[in-house]
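Journal club prep — side note

Before the paper discussion, L.F. wants everyone to see what a predicted structure for a comparable chain looks like in token form. Sequence:
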Amino acid sequence: MYNDWFTIGPLTIHGYGFMIALGIIVGFWILDRQARKNGLDENIADNIVYVALIVGYLCSKLTYVLINFNEFLKDPIHFLLNSSGWVVFGGILGGILGGYIYCKIKKVNFMDYFNLIIPEVALAQAFGRIGCFFAGCCYGKETHSHFGITFPEHSLAPAGIPLVPTQLISSLGDFCIFLVLFKLYNDKKLRPQTAAWYLILYSIGRFMIEFLRGDVERGFIGILSTSQFISIFVCLVGILLLVRIRNNKDQMIKE
């Protein structure tokens, strides 16, 4: 909406960057508390997040480039330096991959830390989507409903046109997912299912919100947006993981 909050000398505070930073800080705070509470190494948890952030950012940028490859070839420098040019799903999958590799190197149980970290990921995403609202990116389709939001000039969204506030809808959904995952993780019986439910819930939410999105640069595969296409497979992975966890639990009970 209004991304440039205030300026101190040469430094301008942007709503987009501030909300992302706030989400990361709050996420780290909750993560460390949860690690200490549940007997996991908070330093390892923090390091996994650092690795995931770096690998995730690179993969989100790579996904954006692949989706818009023809445009990338016209101006590679602009694409690589464009702060709004990235794909969330690419970052999520890249971050998971980075965390998995780190756990393998350190010889720690990946799922223990995956379940620990993933609720805070959803929380950080919720704050990040508020940042998207301030910047105007990830905007919705034109609407004539009372819920439409009109963005000003110099926003990434089209100015002067009432749009579906997809950023705020996504943020609300991510906050809800965080609450569900937080409750799951703090129930020792359900804790192993936490990451699986994230994959399922986030994929369903992302698939649905894509019908309301109006930014075409996110790319399409047939009639589906790139994120919808990825959502289907991520949701299936979450379901298979959930089934496997429950089957293992049933097997342990039988034994």
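L.F.'s comment for the group: The chain has a mean pLDDT of 89. Keep this in mind when we get to the figures.
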